[in-house]
Amino acid sequence: xxxxxxxxxxxxxxxxxxxxxxxxxxxxxxxxxxxxxxxxxxxxxxxxxxxxxxxxxxxxxxxxxxxxxxxxxxxxxxxxxxxxxxxxxxxxxxx
Length: 95
Prior knowledge:
Order of helices and strands: HHH
Shape: globular
Mean pLDDT: 81
């Protein structure tokens, strides 16, 4: 079964989703100079996974073939999506 990285759900389970969301949100927070709490980082990371996954799939990127296992590829895609979310949010707010 050939699965693209971040096919929504990804088979990581609830704990994996929370872990990846937290890590991705925290990394995105540091990259953008934002200041959020743990819960916000998890939410931003999870939403970023959807955004990043959609972009990766639309571009035909199959990072699952590059990274051995699910964690690092999912984190990378989630961080990219989370950074985009934070950036767009800031642009809309005018800050």
